[in-house]
Amino acid sequence: MTSESGGEGKTMLAVNIAAALARRGYDVLAIDFDPQNGSLTSHIGRGVWLSLKTDASPNITDALTGDASIRDCIYEGPGFDFIPGHESLANLEQICATDRSIQLPQSLLRGHIEDLSSEYDYFIIDPPATLSLPLDNALFAARNILAPVELSQKGKDNIDGLERTLDEMEEGLGKAGFDINLNILSIVPNLTGDSNIYDSIKTEMKDEGKLLTPFSYRNRDVLKYAWRERVDLFTYGMMDEDDFTHDECRPMYEYEKDLFLKFDHLARLIEGEWTPLDDYTEDNVSEQWDAIVKENPGYEDETLAVM
Questions:
Q1: CA distances from 101 to 88, 97, 105 (A)
Q2: Pair 22, 81: CB distance under 8 Å
Q3: How far apart are CA 83 and CA 112, in angstroms?
Q4: Partners of 193 in the beta sheet?
Q5: What is the DSSP code (8-state) at residue 252?
Q6: N or C: which end of the chain has fewer CB within 10 A?
Q7: What's the rounded Cα separation, in Å, for the pair 159 and 210?
């Protein structure tokens, strides 16, 4: 999940797509590759793992530099496994610059993912937004990208910048003997509203050949409530009044199930079972969602709900 500026929704997508894939029956490893707070580790598990961002136990940076096993960094999360982020990731470039044994620092994460590929069906990576060695590692490792975008001139400029970054990275790695393709699976409009500018920017991007999802995410309060409770939206949807730890939070409304449909479609996009060019409708949201739950019994698994 990649964006060129913070606040465009990459962590929201990472958490909920990981949850959607898990509920579709897959083994998922979500990787928090952002040294800052407010990323994946902060969003899940009711806050149980917040301290791991600064903890002295083996962390992702230790694994990347050979000082720990990657398996020592994996935690069993709410429906999917995850690797917490750590503040030391901010020093990754400096560490690699002083370690002459590291020949291609952009490839550190990829090697660990290849080692774990027999244990997981999907890897979801939540990197920092800023151009950095952690972001380079995430792109080199994943190769396939979902890019949230705010439908504004700034958001459009960010997508243009991301495309240039990917082209430059492909070219640079090609010169180093690595023939890889960095593929934007889709661009996901986020934080949309009713103003004409949203439709205008979306039309411009489509006219330029950018592949946008046929749906967008409005600035929904329920997404904020889920983050407030530090759970994914699917878990939040199974909570009632007695489960909430904050008075302002409330159970989901029926019409908000369209969010479940959207995350499920993005999970299917990653599976290769759906594309943004396929049909999509928000008519009869409840009936659509009930059909998905019936096809995927894991969606009703209470063990994935409140910890």
A1: 19, 10, 10
A2: no
A3: 12
A4: none
A5: P
A6: C
A7: 9
What is the band of 264 on the pLDDT scale with cuts at 50, 70, 90? very high
Q: Quick check: pTM over 0.85?
A: yes
The pLDDT of residue 9 is above 80: yes
CA-CA distance, 187 to 88, in Å (whole number)? 30
Task: Please give the pLDDT value at position 306.
Answer: 42
Which 3 state secondary structure label does DSSP give 42?
A: helix
3-state secondary structure 182-236: CEEEEEEEEEECCCHHHHHHHHHHHHCCCCECCCCEECCHHHHHHHHCCCCHHHH
Residue 302 confidence (pLDDT) above 60:
no
Encoded amino acid at 266, one letter: L
- Give pLDDT, residue 300: 58
Mean pLDDT of the chain: 91
| Distance, CA of 90 to CA of 105 (rounded, Å) | 14
Instruction: Give SS3 for 55.
Output: coil
Distance CA 173, CA 176 (A): 5
Helix (H, G, I), strand (E, B) or coil at 157: helix
